[in-house]
Amino acid sequence: MARPLKIGLDYFPLNTNIDSDDKIQLVESEFGSKGFAVIIKLYCKIYADKGYYYDWTEKEKLLFAKRTGESVGLVDEIVKRSVKWGLFEESVFNQFQILTSAAIQSRFLEAVNRRKNIEMFSEILLIDINDHENGINVNINSINDNNSTQSKVKEIKEKKNKGVVPPSGESSPPKNPKDQKPKSEGEEKGSPPEEPKEPIADKIDFAKLLQLINKETGRGFQVINENVRKKFRARLKEGYSKETILKAIKTAPQSEYHKGNGCQYLTPEFFSRSDTLDKYGNEASATSPKTEDPKEQPKILGPWAS
């Protein structure tokens, strides 16, 4: 029988001045030495188990609390504050209830540089794989192939169907039958209702957008996750134009600061921020009112405009 492939690590590097990290100190200021101990044990669990992430499910909360000897409530609160202070990626945690970070993923890839093959999930990938290849064959898979995550998705859908929304949002109250519009003849016969059409100017070809970001920054991002996509859509709804986003993507890599840092901070999420567009987009479109009629929208230029 073939020997099972190892996933986690036997050991991981820990900086001797880790307690001087502002993020660690913020957690310690709230929870004292217990906060520090929980974080270190979380790192141990992450690297030993999956290598670069940890599912923070109800089951794992109970088991992890038992290992630490602390209450589930305290451990969960420490984790939430750690996410808040940036020790773990907030967008990934909110969407998937997974603990990870760019630093954790980088250390993991550096530690497994002698392995021939490893697998990583695209939806939670926060780093540029090309910066860490070193001969490793990194298989980028979808997190939806993971059984535990499929269970999460199924649970979320079931809650939505019952009018309950998971912690990331609030459910809307059921509609009053008097307020509902009468069904059309087609709907009475069972025809599917027409979905509201998204204005053309609000559509984004994220595949082309990703190609553009990689081209201008010299990076090699594999995916724009759903949380970042929502941010881009939000910027358009706020009134930022696609030309503004396009100009920011082209302008930011030319700045002396980002050139000096090898464009390491120029991620898709970076370009989805309003302050980035204000600084590098150099347009006043965010302050001008947005035309509601799609026909009156200006023609969108750029290689990623739909």
UniProtKB/TrEMBL annotation:
Ranges annotated as biased composition (Basic and acidic residues): 176-201
InterPro entries noted in UniProt: Lin1244/Lin1753-like_N
Segments for region (Disordered): 157-201, 277-306
Ranges of Low complexity composition bias in the record: 163-173
A Pfam family: Lin1244_N
Superkingdom of origin organism: Bacteria
Domain Lin1244/Lin1753-like N-terminal: 11-104
PANTHER family: PRIMOSOME, DNAD SUBUNIT
Record's protein name: Putative phage protein (TIGR02220 family)
